[in-house]
Design a protein that fits this description.
Helix content: 40-55%
Mean pLDDT: 93
Low-confidence stretches: none
Strand order of the largest sheet: 3-2-1-4-5-6-7
Strand content: 5-15%
Order of helices and strands: EHEHEHEHHEHEHHEH
Radius of gyration: 17 Å
Distance between the termini: 48 Å
């Protein structure tokens, strides 16, 4: 698919992985609709760095259905979608234990609603990529992991229906890439000792994979781990003696 001139809506586009995807998309000629919630300054910085024209930011709180509707209304028509926005609290913390409904809303329901909106526009050759989580493919319990597993399963289940309109939907499952705000670097280093390649995932590699999935017209219903091997390790069968 030629991405030049396509309108791409990306949630969580002001920071971290989302910001890197926004830059790659603009370099490919997309008009980027940058969705953000509380990161107005970061959104301005990303917009200022994007090559090309036609980019704009849209503030929307995806924790409510009204916020999702606001994003849809202000975005207008778009041909491409990347669901990157998500929340993730420290596992076992009071915030984590209290966030079950928020995980479900922000990490699953909001992306599902945006996917439905994209498909309902009846635009031929539209495409979407969901950002899930490599650890959710094989491990982890709790509401966060469940929300990411639900998004992974939705990606796969929608592929056949979307194909009827020659539209595609895929997912990228990142591994350990950037320390979350609540985690010190030392914890990140501990996680990386368990990763087969013993290094963090490069943000640019995730963005590059997203662009590949948007462009490649022969892939749909795929979930690609970009995780330096952690999901393969977690899913590896126990050797038989």
């Amino acid at each position: 698919m030629i991405l030049q001139g396509k309108r791409l809506l990306i949630t969580g586009g002001a920071r971290r992985i989302g910001a890197a995807i926004a830059v790659k998309a603009a370099e490919a000629g997309c008009s980027v609709l940058l969705g953000y919630c509380n990161s107005a300054n970061e959104a301005d910085e990303v917009l200022a760095a994007l090559p090309g024209c036609g980019h704009r930011k849209i503030q929307a709180d995806l924790s409510t259905s009204a916020g999702v509707k606001k994003l849809i209304d202000e975005a207008g028509e778009f041909e491409l979608l990347v669901n990157s926005a998500a929340i993730f609290h420290k596992p076992g913390s009071p915030e984590d234990l209290a966030a079950e409904k928020l995980y479900h809303q922000i990490n699953f329901l909001a992306p599902a609603t945006l996917l439905e909106q994209l498909f309902s526009q009846n635009i031929p050759h539209c495409a979407a990529v969901n950002i899930t989580d490599a650890f959710a493919l094989a491990a982890g319990s709790g509401a966060y992991w469940q929300s990411k597993r639900d998004l992974t399963e939705l990606t796969i289940s929608l592929a056949e229906k979307w194909a009827e309109n020659d539209c595609r939907i895929n997912a990228v499952a990142p591994g350990a890439v950037l320390p979350p705000p609540w985690a010190p670097e030392s914890r990140m280093e501990k996680i990386l000792t368990q990763v087969p390649l013993h290094r963090a995932v490069k943000v640019g590699d995730i963005a590059q994979t997203v662009m590949f999935l948007l462009e490649n017209e022969s892939i749909t219903g795929a979930v690609i781990p970009v995780d330096c091997g952690i999901s393969a390790k977690l899913r590896a069968p126990t050797p038989r003696c």
